[in-house]
Amino acid sequence: MTPKIWNRFVPQFSTLPSVNQIQYNPYLQQKEIRKIMADSNVKLEAWAPLGQGNKDLFTEPVIEQLADKYNKDAGQIILRFEHQEGAIVFPRSVHESRMKSNMAIFDFELTDSEMDTIRALDRGKAAWDPDTPGAAEMLLGAYDVHAND
Fold this sequence. Notes:
Blueprint: H1 3-9, E1 19-23, H2 31-39, E2 43-47, H3 55-58, H4 61-70, H5 74-84, E3 88-89, H6 96-103, H7 112-119, H8 135-142
Parallel strand pairs: 1-2, 2-3
Helix pairs in contact: 4-5
């Protein structure tokens, strides 16, 4: 949900959502919608928290340096950053070793300076733009939210 979609629909809701799942990773930190959500105490659930396997993200020098410093892999640094930012992260994997690795992010903490360095990676561009004309209609038509009524 983008700020535009949020501002169009959410003010009409009788009950606010508790969670908003949006694309979120160090390259797309969604600052504007996160501010709106924080004002309403809505939690962010990261969709594609590892950037959908973006090789550029995994080889960012700052992420590689932090991985070396903490004896972690790049994915663990990314997930730890997102966790410290307050995001709910459920990285998808079918590989047991990656699942275990993705859970091993609670035995270290990034410093404020390191967090700021990763924040500076924000490119502000999503894989796709939900505000594209016709996207809302496509999404609304894809689901029957009243199917069990």
